[in-house]
Amino acid sequence: MSVSHYLVVRALDSVGLAEKDITVVNTSDADLVAAYKTADVTAVVTWNPLPSEITGMPKSTKVFDSSKTQGEIIDIMMVNTTTLKDNPNFSKALVGAWYEMMSIMSKGDEAGIAARTAMAKASGTDLKGYNAQLASTEMFFKPAEGVAFTKDAQLIKTMDFVRKFLLAKGSLGEG
Questions:
Q1: 69-90 exposure pattern, b = at least 16 Cβ within 10 A, e = fewer
Q2: How many domains does the chain have?
Q3: Of 30, 80, 127, 156, which is most buried with the most CB atoms under 10 A?
């Protein structure tokens, strides 16, 4: 199950509907805006920066977003345990590079603006669109924030909810 699939199922569940009540068509990000412009497509599930373009279209309304599933959708990087065992400095280098970039991009100085501008371009948007995306995303710009999130008892409760939800919906396969 993809994150988009999870979000649409959560949205449907929130209003007492199920996947069987709609027709789901997996569409690449590159084709979503064009597909939404057709008469055949009445709804989309997508991620920034596309929603800003779609919600600007006539007769378009945002009805659900990930803010209604607080803490359930987490961007995370996983590393194979064997890789870490064989390369003990890899995790330090990875985390160090991550937070070095987070420090740069979170600043309002020339370097921060340049970093966000490059990330915006890579994301298919401009600096204004990328800054809007960051404003709607909970970011852990400092290592202590990320550590606190992973140690918060609420994370265990939330992930247990996600696990049970996915099992109940048959999204994780048999058993």
A1: bebbeeeeeeeeeeeeeeeeee
A2: 1
A3: 127
Q: Are 141 and 106 in contact (CB under 8 A)?
A: yes
> What is the domain extent for residue 10?
1-70
Residue 38 lies in a domain: yes
> Quick one: pLDDT at residue 47?
81
- Structural domain includes residue 8: yes
Tell whether pTM > 0.70: yes
Cα(29)–Cα(1) distance, rounded to whole angstroms?
Answer: 16
The one-character DSSP state at 19 is G
Retrieve residue 128's tokens: 């204004």
How many DSSP H helices and E strands does the chain contain?
9, 0
Instruction: State the Cα–Cα distance between residues 109 and 90, nearest whole angstrom.
Output: 30
Inter-residue contact 73 to 7 (CB < 8 Å): yes
- Please list the rounded mean pLDDT of every run of 10 residues in the chain (175 residues): 84 92 88 90 84 86 88 86 93 93 96 96 90 88 92 93 85 72
Q: Dump the DSSP string for 41-78.
A: -------TTHHHHHTTSTT------GGGGTTTS-----
